[in-house]
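Look over both lines before class:
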Amino acid sequence: MLTAQAKEISLAVQHLQNTDHVIGHCIEINRLENDADRMFQSAIGELFDKVKDPIDVIKRKEIIETLEKATDKAEDVANVLETIIVKNA
């Protein structure tokens, strides 16, 4: 998910002169973030269902939450790119 978002961010930045392309990439970044949110919820649920060692649960939960925060930050980048496009339209 993160690599796909990073690719879309890179493509959006490369096409800053073409607002249609940038908006399309921003939409895709947001879609990927929504998918990541669903995966996060599923992963947390599965973690508590299947992992019994509390220390392992804590470690894995921290990793999952960090990945989810990273996808949120990619969405923040998309929002900034959209703001740039709107201000320069």
Summary: The mean pLDDT is 94. Helices lie at 2-14, 19-50, 54-87.
